[in-house]
Amino acid sequence: ELAQPMRPQDIKGGLEELCKAWVDEYPGLRNPDDKLRAISKFHARLLLIHPFLDGNGRVARAVLMQQCLDLFQRAEMSLLNKGADYYSALKNADQGNIDPLIDLIRPIVFD
Predict the structure, then answer these.
(1) By CB atoms within 10 Å of each CB, which of 5, 19, 33, 104 scores lowest?
(2) 29 and 38 in contact (C-beta within 8 Å)?
């Protein structure tokens, strides 16, 4: 079953909860695989919370870029596949399988 976008009245609380969880988790991320998993989970969740049909991808990718820079000191965003594979990976993440999204984000931070 796909995760459902938040109701409008729940967006503010959802964003606050997501950001608090990130702030709590961020300092303890040491292992590159843990970092990629955390970034991927945040990205997928943000796209569910952030409700705008026009522009939520740009906002989410800007946050993704900043997280990659913060945790890996690299963010080659031109390497992110934003086509069918990206949307398939997001759908998988919504169903609880984050691995395809991790695989798409990995090239952004590793040569």
Answers:
(1) 33
(2) yes
